[in-house]
UniProtKB/TrEMBL annotation, chain A:
A Pfam family that the UniProt record links to this protein: TPP_enzyme_C
Classification via InterPro entries: 2-oxoacid:Fd_oxidoreductase, OFOB, PFO_beta_C, THDP-binding, TPP_enzyme_TPP-bd
Source species of the chain: Hydrogenivirga caldilitoris
Coiled-coil stretches noted in the UniProt entry, renumbered to this chain: none
SUPFAM superfamilies assigned: Thiamin diphosphate-binding fold (THDP-binding)
Segments forming domain Thiamine pyrophosphate enzyme TPP-binding: 51-198
Domain of life: Bacteria
Cofactor: thiamine diphosphate; Mg(2+); [4Fe-4S] cluster
Domain Pyruvate ferredoxin oxidoreductase beta subunit C-terminal: 202-265
Gene3D superfamilies: 3.40.50.970
UniProt protein name: 2-oxoglutarate ferredoxin oxidoreductase subunit beta
A single BP term in Gene Ontology: cellular respiration
Keyword Metal-binding recorded: yes
From TrEMBL, chain B:
Domain Pyruvate/ketoisovalerate oxidoreductase catalytic residues, every copy: 11-135
Keywords attached to this entry: Oxidoreductase
Domain annotation Pyruvate flavodoxin/ferredoxin oxidoreductase pyrimidine binding: ranges: 184-411
The protein, known as: 2-oxoglutarate ferredoxin oxidoreductase subunit alpha
TM helices/strands, residue ranges: none
Entry GO MF terms: oxidoreductase activity, acting on the aldehyde or oxo group of donors
Xref: PANTHER family: 2-OXOGLUTARATE OXIDOREDUCTASE SUBUNIT KORA (PTHR32154:SF20), PYRUVATE-FLAVODOXIN OXIDOREDUCTASE-RELATED (PTHR32154)
Gene Ontology biological-process entries: response to oxidative stress
Gene3D superfamilies in the record: 3.40.50.920, 3.40.50.970, Pyruvate-ferredoxin oxidoreductase, PFOR, domain III (3.40.920.10)
InterPro entries: 2-oxoacid/accept_OxRdtase_asu, Pyruvate:ferred/Flavod_OxRd, Pyrv/ketoisovalerate_OxRed_cat, Pyrv_Fd/Flavodoxin_OxRdtase_N, Pyrv_flavodox_OxRed_cen, THDP-binding, Transketo_C/PFOR_II
Organism: Hydrogenivirga caldilitoris
Length: 265, 539
């Protein structure tokens, strides 16, 4: 517990924009880790990231880390978990990072039920590369590479992960840090592959705070049963990442138990 | 006696197996032997063949023209007409016709399965080898009773043409380069073998997967080569020894992560078994045209090791060393092999001995800095999970703790650290005795200079043609001085390689060595002995 007394932040200069959704996400995670450190020694955490604004989180968080490359963090995390099953790998990835370049690694991590956690900073824009559309951008998103809007529809990662076999599927909102903290705690404690898509507004290229504040509702308040796959799928399909006039569920969609990859290989 | 025997037939008919068993019999009789395996990229049908050469003297290659051709089907007769000499003895299936050929019932135990037993029976009788010499091999096959019967029938039906005497003590076991790569890795402390199937590296995956329990290792087959190498990075970062294996196309996918390995200073061994390229190329055939790609793959500057074994013994020893070098210097080590080394049959004496050297580990004083700046450029290793420390690995340019930096001073400082590590590595490699191998007629002023499996044919022609054979075992760091010493005063230096553009010759020139002649073969086949003799006669 020697580390517990230290700050969870490295002190590195934080270069995210003022009001960026990444702050809420990072606070929720740090807060979750602080609470989890009662049972999990801090040195057992390994945080990983891909490339993009989100990736900087590994510089700011004072835990073991591996700053991976674009889209590959889940593969690296799987290797870490295989080599040392006592560790808790947590991947921070971006929507452009993981749903485009890294989609195969994400799908296979879910398929394998490898015991890692993947937290997606889903701002629905390539922001560090100054504003292009990503796999979850809506068709109204006017990006630098698609000034008329993307000529393709967004994917629904929550439905995708349910189909891929993830045993813990959730969506959080960086604007509701206390709620997000609870989801992250559950995700890390879940034995098996945990997936959390975090709605994380980019104030410069796609400011969705107002949209999410208006449309988001909590699954647990709606009496959702996360043990039912059918219910989870129905809730996942309520919002298609495109429309702005429907309610957006956040919380734990699905949770089940299955042997992990590490146990099976 | 020095003979080349071709055994041809459909894929799936047990041709490879027949060749391997025959090599086993010849080994037991005290002969040196070598087997070249030729098969197209298909599962059943087509035309496969094994070409074997055996002799009282060491052999590492086969002749193109065979003394005996065993054709188990009609297509094999047509395919090998070009490989026959005037006095070639043909042994063909009883259903086929060829003037002067011996007809034998090449029967299968089940439709489409194992003509190997009948082939072995026929060849053994042809050379007057007692029937008992083949029995242990036949009895280890499935369906042993049926196999034994057709073995005996074929033996019975074949006349004896040659009288093969026992040549002495057994010279070694029948082994492939790939098997020795696998064994070398295990004895170098391998804990994880991670690979996506790709010919000609796949046999290593299969060999280790079958024996993972015995070896106490994990064998993982992920979604693609990018998953492979990034998973291996995770394994190594967490402190376990990993190796990956692939061929050119798979390695192309891994090159992004090769740079990550360079930057994050992750110990990694990559086995690259070359096929004939470019692109998908000729998947089941051989080549040496990934040389410059492996030397220069990856973006940015970072130190690496590229080495190329030429024999199974060396494949074993160098793979074992590769794991230790990777961990000692926290660099990628590329083992550059090819289909010819990987899948040919060699008689080899590999003496296994575990050798796991401890890397430079952190001693546990003060704050741990993953990228601590040191005089030799090597930062002490520690792994996540250890109490009281934080280990930060990264793809980004970083400070000593592993936190991103972009300012000019810091960027240069870390580049300098890695350069110094490269220099330490260079001194270590170049001080080794085995950077260059020398064989053939050592006093000759005529030199064949080569690398990798191509050395085999060079050695087999050296005495007859009066050549010294010089081989670069390490390609990066390049043993320039040693090579220059070995060719000093030579009147004729000929570079020999399986690359259309002469990649090895280019590498030599880069280091100030200009061969007088350059011989290149690039049809997917290795140099054959008789072919090389003919070429060298004209030089």
């Amino acid at each position: 517990m020697a580390l517990a007394k230290r700050s969870l932040y490295t002190g590195a200069e934080i270069t995210w924009c003022r009001l960026c959704g990444n702050f809420g996400l990072m606070s929720a995670f740090a807060w979750a880790v602080e609470e989890l450190s009662e049972s999990i020694p801090l040195e057992k955490f390994v945080v990983l990231s891909g490339i993009g604004c989100h990736g900087k989180i590994v510089d700011y968080i004072n835990l073991n880390s591996f700053y991976s490359i674009h889209g590959r963090a889940p593969a690296t995390a799987t290797g870490i978990k295989l080599a040392n099953p006592e560790l808790y790998p947590v991947c921070f990835v971006g929507d452009g990072d993981i749903y485009a370049e890294g989609i195969s690694h994400l799908l296979f991590a879910a398929k394998r039920n490898t015991d890692i956690t993947v937290i997606v900073h889903d701002n629905r824009a390539y922001s560090l590369t100054t504003g292009q559309f990503t796999p979850t951008s809506p068709v109204i998103f006017r990006g630098k590479s698609t000034p008329e809007g993307p000529p393709e529809d967004p994917i629904n990662p929550v439905a995708l992960m349910l189909e891929a076999g993830a045993t813990f599927v959730a969506r959080g909102y960086a604007g509701y840090t206390d709620h997000l903290k609870e989801i992250i705690k559950q995700a890390i404690l879940h034995k098996g592959f945990s997936f959390v898509d975090v709605l994380q507004p980019c104030v410069v290229f796609y400011n969705t705070y107002e949209l999410y504040n208006r449309q988001v509702y909590k699954l647990e308040s709606a009496g959702h049963d996360p043990s039912s796959y059918e219910e989870a799928y129905r809730r996942a399909k309520e919002w298609d990442y495109n429309r702005e006039d429907v309610r957006i569920p956040i919380g734990v969609f699905y949770k089940t138990d299955k042997p992990t990859y590490e146990e099976r290989v | 006696m020095d003979k080349t025997i071709i055994i041809g037939g459909k894929a799936g008919a047990g041709i490879k197996e027949a060749g391997r068993m025959l090599l086993g019999v010849l080994a037991n009789l005290g002969y040196h032997a070598f087997g070249y395996v030729d098969y197209p990229s298909l599962i059943r049908g087509g035309h496969n063949f094994v070409s074997l050469r055996f002799s009282e003297k060491p052999v590492y290659s086969v002749d193109k023209k065979a003394d005996v051709i065993i054709a188990t089907d009609g297509r094999s007769i047509q395919a090998h007409l070009q490989d026959a000499k005037e006095d070639t003895v043909w042994v063909i299936n009883e259903k086929e016709k060829l003037e002067g050929a011996i007809q034998v019932p090449f029967k299968e135990v089940a439709p489409g399965f194992f003509k190997s037993s009948s082939v072995l029976g026929a060849v053994l009788k042809l050379f007057g080898i007692p029937l008992e010499e083949g029995l242990p091999f036949i009895l280890s096959l499935p369906e042993r009773e049926k196999n034994e019967q057709i073995y005996r029938d074929a033996y019975q039906a074949t006349p004896t043409v040659f009288e093969l005497k026992k040549a002495g003590e057994r010279k070694g076991d029948v082994l492939t380069g790939n098997e020795c790569i696998a064994l070398g890795a295990v004895d170098g402390g391998l804990e994880f073998y991670i690979a996506y199937p790709m010919t000609p590296a796949s046999p290593v995956l299969h060999y280790l997967a079958e024996r993972k329990g015995e070896f106490g290792i994990k064998v993982i087959h992920p979604e693609n080569e990018i998953g492979v190498i990034n998973m291996a990075v995770g394994v190594a970062f967490a402190g376990k020894r990993a190796m990956v294996g692939t061929s050119g196309g798979g390695f192309a996918l891994m090159t992004e992560t090769l740079s990550l390995i360079g930057m994050s200073e992750t110990p990694m061994v990559i086995y690259e078994a070359q096929r004939a390229g470019p692109s998908t190329g000729v998947p089941t055939y051989t080549g040496q045209s990934d040389l410059l790609f492996c030397m220069f793959a990856g973006h940015g500057d970072f130190p690496r090791v590229v080495l190329a074994p030429a024999t199974p013994e060396e494949a074993y020893r160098l793979t074992r060393d590769a794991l230790n070098i990777a961990w000692k210097f926290q660099v990628p080590v590329l083992i550059l092999g090819d289909k010819h080394l990987g899948e040919s049959y060699y008689l080899s004496k590999v003496r296994r001995e575990k050798l796991v050297e401890e890397p430079k580990l952190w001693e546990g004083n003060g704050e741990y800095k993953r990228y601590a700046v040191t005089e030799d450029g090597i930062s002490p290793l520690a792994f996540p999970g250890a109490e009281g420390i934080i280990v930060k690995g990264t793809s980004y340019e970083h400070d000593e703790r592993g936190i991103t930096v972009e300012d000019a001073l810091s960027v240069k400082k870390m580049q300098d650290k890695r350069l110094r590590k490269g220099e330490t590595l260079r001194e270590y490699i170049l001080s080794r005795e085995d950077t260059v191998a020398v064989g053939g007629v050592k006093g000759s002023d005529r030199v064949l200079i080569t690398w990798g499996s191509t050395e085999g044919t060079a050695l087999d022609v050296a005495e007859e043609m009066g050549f010294k054979v010089v081989r670069s075992v390490f390609l990066e760091p390049f043993p320039e001085e040693r090579l220059k010493q070995e060719i000093e005063g030579a009147n004729l230096v000929i570079s020999l390689e399986c690359s259309a553009s002469g990649q090895f010759e280019k590498l030599l020139k880069m280091h100030g060595i200009t061969p007088h002649r350059s011989l290149k073969k690039y049809d997917g086949r290795p140099f054959f002995r008789d072919e090389l003799i003919d070429i060298l006669r004209e030089v």
